[in-house]
Amino acid sequence: MADNGTLNYCWSQAMIAGFVAAGVSEAIISPGSRSTPLALAMLRQERLRCHVAVDERSAAFFALGIAKASRRPVMLLATSGTAPANWLPAVIEASQSGVPLILVSADRPPEHHGCGANQTINQINLFASHVRASHFLGTPEHGFEADYLHRLAAHAYEQAIWPHPGPVHINQPFREPLLPLTATPPALIPEAIHLAHGSQLPAMDTVRDFSRRISGRPGIIVCGEMPATGAYRDSIAALAAHLNCPILAEPLSGLRFGKHDRSRLSVRYDTWLADPSFTEKCPPEWVLRFGSFPVTRRLQNHLASIQATHGLAEAWPTWADPSHRLTHLFRCHPSELCSALLAENITPAPDDWLPMFAEQESLASAQADVTHIGTLLELLPDETPLFVGNSLAIRQVDRHSGCASKAIHFYGNRGASGIDGNISTAMGIAAVHGRVVALIGDLTCQHDLGGLALAKGRDAVIVVVNNAGGGIFDHLPQRDLPEFEQGWRTPQQINFEHAALAFGIGYGCAKSDVEFRNQLRAALLAGGPHLIELTLP
Hints:
The protein is 36% helix and 17% strand. The protein is α/β, with parallel strands linked by helices. The protein has three domains: 4-173, Thiamin diphosphate (ThDP)-binding fold, Pyr/PP domains (Rossmann fold, 3-Layer(aba) Sandwich), CATH 3.40.50; 204-367, Rossmann fold, CATH 3.40.50; 372-535, Thiamin diphosphate (ThDP)-binding fold, Pyr/PP domains (Rossmann fold, 3-Layer(aba) Sandwich). Helix 13 packs parallel to helix 19. The protein is globular. The relative contact order is 0.11.
């Protein structure tokens, strides 16, 4: 019993060394007692950058933001009981959006379960189908082999990144005492296991069949959210040029902003899709999709109405076809499919096809209103990451962002599209990029006020659009209900200035575009954390 604390610590040292060797460089720790051996091993590991976040829900979304921006697994640590249960919303988002996380929960030993022991719950299969894998370990044993823990870490790391990135859960029980009683040398980092994952090339018979069906016919390319790597932009632009077709690109596709060829982009589709005289005159005979299913209802409905050839490039083992129109599924990355199609002898669409979309884009751009979205994007410095909240914010950006040569890195939590944890996710993105601007609604901000604690010391501007509650419901059928104001619109009375001051964040309020422009410019120039409340009529 006297040296059990040292055993716990040495065991934890070996596990953390294995994760560092595998490639983990970031860890988020929520303080607790039962997790002490692992927390100590993390904090004393020089090759691991540790962040401490008291609120486990915020911690999990913070880890999600770091992993989303870095595309590498991030480790989370929490103590036993309800602490890891607070990870669930972020775990679901990570699973749905393909973001790698390593979830390490401390636990009580077996003899504490089922007998009313404090802070003890059943943590086995806590996250059910929302994790790629689960590892339920026993308590540390004397004479253990460090190689076992090194390989366990390497295996969990691979499960988090391949074939479908996502969260992996490790549950580790400890017996007391939890602190080491004797000095131990630093853990040796083992040699990394080199992972070699083969590239997924599209099946050529399927490519040829798809090519035959679309050759010489009018069609569209639709791009939803894709990982923020940008490697696919030139490939998709080249394919659109070859096929003489428009690219209907959402902001989270990464195609609207940057120095790549944007001449065939269609970004005002939410306007012209509302005109049946155009959509009925120009029905596509094929659709090729890259990335997630579209955000906006009009584009979703338009795709569902096209009963023709539908292709989708999706390297992950997911099935993104809610409209049930898919005819060709290519298990490969966008660039690989583009290369394969460019190598085929495909006749472009008729000469007048693309110009018709260009004309609609021009008309819609000329009629577009100047909004806070345009002001925000105009003032953002080049290479700025922009996190866009769910509900109304993402739809407004989709409708009003336009496109430009400035490089803006768009992020959002569109896996499960929740309004929880958005501030915390944005702060995780800031931890990677060094800065972030977030555009969220008032209810989204209220859902994650605890995330403001993570803004301390960061170059972060949080723009909160205060439209007095759930503005998204103004556009949905619920608006006609007599209980609408009480049950859906739910205007709140929160004072965002007090909230900002409570967390030591600069505050500004804007009630016009001129005031917003001035507030945003000042916040970007000053650096540090700021919350700008934009009040709309």
